[in-house]
Write a structure and sequence with these properties.
The longest helix is centred in the middle third of the chain and has 20 residues, at 41-60. The radius of gyration is 27 Å and the shape is elongated. Among the domains are: 2-60, no CATH class; 80-97 and 120-131, no CATH class. The chain is 47% helix and 0% strand. By secondary structure, it is an all-alpha fold. Residues 119-131 have a biased composition (Basic and acidic residues). Residues 58-131 are annotated as: Disordered. Residues 108-118 have a biased composition (Acidic residues).
Length: 131
Amino acid sequence: MRGLFARLDPPWTEQEQVDMVHANLPPVYRMWLRINRHTIISELEKMVIQQDSIYHGCDKRKPPPAPETSMCPAYAYPPPKDRAKAQSKLVLRMMKPNPPPAKTDTSGSDDDSEDDPDKVDPDLLEELIKA
């Protein structure tokens, strides 16, 4: 890119070069790399290299082997026991909207309002702690 920028007539400013490089990055990098008016090409290059190593490191990561295939089964990482299923059910239950209140207050006063958004269902809280 530096060679291409060197051929431009009139030469671009550092900020224009940074903007062009940032605009031509793959979306996965642009999403995480934030630039400002003080960012220079060398800083952007370092940030892209760092993000690239993180991105490719995530692709190469594989979970630890199961205890049956491990060299030392006693110290192997045990797989979770249906905890993910229980937590996903709990999350789905938490996402359900609360049923509408049985009675509606038409008096206009907010003193006895039962629609308190900060009120937590104690049964749901206990389930969350157990999960």
